[in-house]
Amino acid sequence: MRLLNDMALFVEVIKANSFRGAAEAVGLPNSTVSRRIAELERRIGLRLLNRTTRRIELTEGGRLYYERCRRIVDEARLAHEEISDLVDNPSGLIRLSIPIDFGVVYLAPLLAEFAERYPQIQFDLDLTPKRLDLIRDPVDLVIRIGALPDSQLIARPLGTLQRNLFASPSYLARYGVPSSPAELLQHQCLRMLDAPWILHAAEQKVSLPIQGRYLLNNIGMLRRLALLGQGIAMLVDEMIGEDLAQGRLQRVLPSWRAEALPVYAITETRLVPAKVRVLIDFLSEQFNSK
């Protein structure tokens, strides 16, 4: 049992990237954490960490040992949580990272519904689009949109978000309504990436090297500029429902659709606590019901 506890402590040290951070997380003195890691190294006959005054780094053997320890500790933790699963009452804090505009417009009402269903679960929300290090960053679940970079993380597809082309009535009155994809090349197009727009209609597919004065990395700003009549934007239908209902935006080229964006739930490991698993299942259910 002492070995398992020390393995769990070693995992905490790596996640915190310091003895002090691990000590605060587990409620032990810093000196005790340092001593127990040193004893663990002596017990297995292998240096796990290179220590400096400012940071710690895993040795090659330490990295292999960490991966094994992390899986063992996760299994042990889940064994305890399965007891609470028997009463079907997941509880505790979920640390969740979500893109800003997607979270505010799309996920907020879903989280409110989930909170009603599971009143014993709390949330710590980090609204950011940046890539996170799930070993270092204190996050249980990351929601991301679009293609993902290769990594060792576990990405579960939740569903897709349909995108289409929209513009404000003022823009269309001033510059005209395009009647074909080719006419988009004569318009101001609001771009999220410096890449062609790909559109589909039945069996047709076109790739358009669109141009425009604006290149952005934020959906909220993209929507705002479209509302201000600055150009034609490719937007997610569900995130502009009120704008469409109020006539602030209009569909452009309604017979053509943009490629849908995949949405992923990302975790460090396949072995997730019950509170995280029920949230992933709930979000997947909501996406697939739309």
TrEMBL record:
<feature type="domain" description="HTH lysR-type">
    <location>
        <begin position="1"/>
        <end position="59"/>
    </location>
</feature>
<dbReference type="GO" id="GO:0043565">
    <property type="term" value="F:sequence-specific DNA binding"/>
</dbReference>
<keyword id="KW-0238">DNA-binding</keyword>
<dbReference type="Pfam" id="PF03466">
    <property type="entry name" value="LysR_substrate"/>
</dbReference>
<dbReference type="InterPro" id="IPR036390">
    <property type="entry name" value="WH_DNA-bd_sf"/>
</dbReference>
<keyword id="KW-0805">Transcription regulation</keyword>
<dbReference type="InterPro" id="IPR000847">
    <property type="entry name" value="LysR_HTH_N"/>
</dbReference>
<keyword id="KW-0804">Transcription</keyword>
<dbReference type="InterPro" id="IPR005119">
    <property type="entry name" value="LysR_subst-bd"/>
</dbReference>
<dbReference type="GO" id="GO:0006351">
    <property type="term" value="P:DNA-templated transcription"/>
</dbReference>
<dbReference type="InterPro" id="IPR036388">
    <property type="entry name" value="WH-like_DNA-bd_sf"/>
</dbReference>
<dbReference type="Pfam" id="PF00126">
    <property type="entry name" value="HTH_1"/>
</dbReference>
<dbReference type="InterPro" id="IPR058163">
    <property type="entry name" value="LysR-type_TF_proteobact-type"/>
</dbReference>
<comment type="similarity">
    <text>Belongs to the LysR transcriptional regulatory family.</text>
</comment>
<protein>
    <submittedName>
        <fullName>DNA-binding transcriptional regulator, LysR family</fullName>
    </submittedName>
</protein>
<dbReference type="GO" id="GO:0003700">
    <property type="term" value="F:DNA-binding transcription factor activity"/>
</dbReference>
